[in-house]
Write a structure and sequence with these properties.
This protein is α+β, with helices and mostly antiparallel strands. 47% of the residues lie in helices and 18% in strands. A hairpin with a 2-residue loop joins β1 and β2 (70-78).
Length: 307
């Protein structure tokens, strides 16, 4: 009996897009022979997914799930918005989103968790759905937030079904105050974040490379000026940048007369306890995915002689 190593399982998984446990079973059944294992998976109807795995999946849904002091966002992609409106796909996204609460922001951990009501892990269940529906799908990413005391509130923009849509936002509010008040403000703040897409909580939290780029732009625009003048210009420029891009400094969309930091302080007073915005997370469907010139709809049109 050939030794079924972790690297062999990984290679088969990458080759076929099938879950790790099914890959291990296939290799065990074929004495570790890679091509025979591929055929074994094809015979089981699992490796059909591999043919779809090279297509760009930039549509789909962002799922949101919260449970008291914890919450998670998960992006599950499909090739077309048509599939994103499919009830089976939406049910799958809902179930995966609930599991993500316990995945500790790890996409790999989420993919290996048992899918409810199935003998498969999440990755293998998704592969089965690919074979059934006929489009490439993937669990692209997940992120979770938690507080020791308080609430994790959420908001879904362009909602396609309860708890899923094109943009998902989580807000972690640490406080001993009234939970109902906190939850209400948290949802309003999450709506603000969905609309403004802040870069960071405050200027100190902006990634170093982003801050360096902003400084370089200001230096280039004001080259030739004395060092002491340039220093003041950069400080002023970064302050303006913070007002536009840093959450606490932004003008609150629900009341433009105050900043988010001021709205936060007021919400804490109403809730009856000091309120700290511990963290936020905004996830937009398909951001960062390079879409090819051809899409699935165009491919179908070509096949029917209409393209």
């Amino acid at each position: 009996m050939a030794e079924i190593t972790a690297s062999l399982v990984r290679d088969l998984r990458e080759k076929t897009g099938v879950g790790m446990m099914d890959c291990k079973a296939a290799l065990a059944a074929t004495n570790g022979e890679m091509e025979a294992a591929v055929d074994w998976l094809r015979a089981k109807g699992l490796a059909k997914a591999a043919k779809k795995s090279t297509r760009v999946a930039a549509e789909g849904l962002v799922g949101v799930a919260t449970r008291g002091t914890v919450g998670a966002l998960t992006e599950v992609n499909s090739e077309t918005d048509f599939v994103a409106r499919n009830e089976k796909f939406q049910t799958m996204v809902a179930e995966i989103s609930k599991l993500a609460i316990d995945a500790d922001s790890s996409t790999e951990k989420l993919k290996t968790m048992p899918y409810p009501g199935s003998s498969h892990e999440v990755a293998a269940f998704v592969a089965e759905m690919v074979a059934t529906i006929g489009e490439n799908m993937s669990v692209r990413r997940t992120a979770a937030l938690s507080v020791n005391e308080g609430v994790v509130s959420s908001y879904v923009h362009n909602q396609a079904a309860p708890g899923m849509g094109k943009i998902g936002v989580l807000v972690a509010l640490e406080s001993s105050g009234n939970k109902e008040e906190l939850a209400g403000f948290g949802r309003m703040l999450a709506m603000h974040i969905a609309a403004t897409n802040p870069v960071a909580l405050d200027l100190a939290s902006v990634p170093a490379d982003v801050l360096a780029r902003e400084k370089a732009i200001l230096e280039e625009k004001n080259s030739g000026k004395p060092a002491n003048v340039l220093e003041k210009i950069i400080a002023s420029g970064l302050k303006s940048y913070a007002k536009d891009n840093c959450l606490l400094e932004q003008s609150y969309v629900h009341d433009g007369s105050k900043t988010v930091a001021q709205a936060l302080a007021e919400a804490g007073n109403k809730a009856g306890g000091a309120l700290t915005l511990k963290a936020f997370c905004r996830m937009q469907l398909g951001e960062g995915i390079e879409k090819g010139g051809d899409d699935f709809a165009a491919e179908v049109a070509k096949m029917s002689g209409q393209g």
